[in-house]
Design a protein that fits this description.
Elements: H1 2-62, H2 66-79, H3 83-110, H4 112-120, H5 126-151, H6 155-180, H7 185-205, H8 216-255, H9 257-292, H10 296-323, H11 325-332, H12 341-348, H13 351-367, H14 370-395, H15 397-423, H16 429-451, H17 455-481, H18 483-494
Length: 495
């Protein structure tokens, strides 16, 4: 029992640290977006978005997914306490990062003119992309160094690097935009990338490793293994990008740009903001899972624990957003976006299914089964696109919310069948129990917002439901972690 509590506490520690980091970064991004909007206007924001998305695509392709796939190798070497192997992996990955970063920079320079034409439909930004090749190089290398910190579970160092980088980015961006306006966009992007690199380099250099000589053959053999999984991750990312593009094209051709804007805004609120929790969890979850991936029993236990904790954290947030969706849309967007509210509410009802499918997918990644991962991701994206189109045809934006729920329900079933057959994975009794109780709470939330016409009664019932959900989650987390005792200890230390 004590070992189980320690495991839960380890997971909660990672979620707490990076949940806090994601929250701070979200605040920084909101403040930065406000200043940017004032200082360079809508045109400037558009230019910055196009430049960032263009080099982001280059980063995604040129990096070969190394910053994601190498986490598994670092985690395995760390759990085995193999100092020599860890040092060799460090040397190999460092070489690979500078190679892929350089390739990305060269590609950006070579295709600078084409990138300008593609993004802006003219050649005026060719030299902007040439200069941004510097940002591509430092970004790819920095991402890989952060992966080292993640793989070795140096969570505090990774958290400090992320927060300091966000603050420095804010402090740099504002003066540049104030004095140079739109001309400050490219320097701001380059300085932000260089800052991220310097911070990552600083924390990685603090890791004590034994100097190791690694032959070219060793470098090539290990690099091929890392790149194999990395390319699969890149490919799935490109598939997701393509599916998103096709969905936008469908909406544009059906109901115009307004429909696209409403759809995208709804996705932001359901996937981006709630998705911060998944980002926080994944930072620690993937390395921990990679450490035990050879032991199916331990893998089974860890995945179930992650699902349980993820659901307990997400459910109160999802219910709160379901009840107060209108207020959230008004504060974060405007009243013009009210038509997207049903999409948001119905999508949030499917968050528990998404939590489960997200956690199970990492089993395949941790096992290093590249082919199976590609198949599952392709199936998910195809299913997502088909159900979204059908849902929109039948019920408009609300239908996309229904599609979200149905898509992840089907994905959970498919993933359960696959992982049970190959790795013996299954939901334990506690996971099933927690899931259905919380899913019922979510469905009651939908009934409250769609079934109660009186506004006073609706919001009163909603507040009561949110409180019940919070109390239930706290009760369950207290049983898992002795949460109340931990809070009292923390408060006692502060005093």
């Amino acid at each position: 029992m004590d070992k189980q509590k320690d495991s839960y506490r380890t997971a909660m520690k990672g979620i707490t640290i990076f949940g806090g980091v994601q929250f701070v970064l979200a605040i920084i991004n909101i403040v930065r977006a406000k200043f940017v909007a004032i200082l360079i206007g809508t045109e400037g924001m558009g230019i910055a978005a196009l430049l960032n998305s263009s080099i982001g695509l280059i980063n995604q392709i040129a990096s070969l997914g190394v910053s994601y796939s190498c986490v598994r190798d670092f985690a395995r070497a760390e759990v085995d306490r193999d100092v020599v192997r860890l040092a060799k992996i460090f040397v190999i990955i460092n070489r690979l990062l500078w190679i892929t970063g350089s390739i990305g920079a060269i590609l950006t320079i070579i295709f600078a003119k084409q990138l300008s034409l593609w993004a802006f439909e003219d050649e005026n930004y060719t030299w902007s992309f040439v200069w941004l090749s510097i940002a591509v190089l430092f970004t790819i290398v920095a991402q890989g160094m952060n992966a080292l910190l993640q793989g070795m579970r140096m969570l505090k160092s990774l958290a400090k690097s992320s927060v300091i980088g966000g603050i420095v980015g804010l402090l740099v961006n504002v003066p540049l935009y104030y004095f140079y306006g739109i001309d400050g966009i490219v320097p701001a992007i380059i300085i932000a990338a260089f800052t991220t690199f310097i911070l990552a380099f600083y924390y990685v250099r603090r890791i004590e490793t034994q100097p190791q000589s690694v032959s070219l053959k060793e470098t090539l053999v290990h690099s091929c293994r890392v790149v194999k999984l990395g390319v699969a991750l890149v490919f799935t990312g490109l598939i997701s990008t393509l599916v998103a593009y096709l969905m936008n094209i469908f909406l544009q051709s059906t109901d115009g740009k307004t429909a696209v804007g409403l759809y995208q805004s709804g996705l932001v609120l359901t996937t981006q903001y709630v998705g911060l929790i998944f980002t926080a969890m994944a930072t620690d979850y993937f390395p921990r899972l990679s450490m035990v991936q050879e032991d199916n029993a331990q893998t089974n236990l860890l995945v179930n624990q992650q699902i349980q904790m993820g659901q307990l954290i997400i459910t109160p947030i999802a219910i709160g957003l379901i009840i107060f969706a209108q207020l959230a849309v008004y504060l974060l967007l405007s009243s013009d976006f009210y038509p997207t509210i049903p999409l948001i509410q119905l999508s949030l009802a499917g968050m528990l299914f998404k939590t489960a499918s997200w956690a199970i997918t990492y089993i395949i990644l941790a096992k290093g089964n590249t082919g199976l991962y590609l198949i599952t991701e392709f199936t998910y994206n195809a299913l997502w696109l088909i159900l979204n189109i059908i849902g929109y045809k039948l019920w408009g934006l609300a239908g996309i919310g229904v599609a979200f729920l149905m898509c992840f329900f089907i994905c959970v079933i498919i993933l359960l069948i696959i992982t049970h057959t190959k790795y013996g994975f299954f939901f334990n009794k506690k996971t099933v129990q927690l899931f259905w109780i919380q899913q019922v709470l979510l469905m009651i939330g939908l009934f409250v917002v769609f079934g109660i016409e009186n506004e006073y009664i609706r919001y009163s019932a909603g507040v009561v439901l949110v409180i019940i959900s919070i109390l239930y989650s706290f009760w369950q987390l207290d049983k898992m972690l002795s949460l109340w005792n931990l809070i009292k200890i923390k408060l006692g230390r502060r005093k």
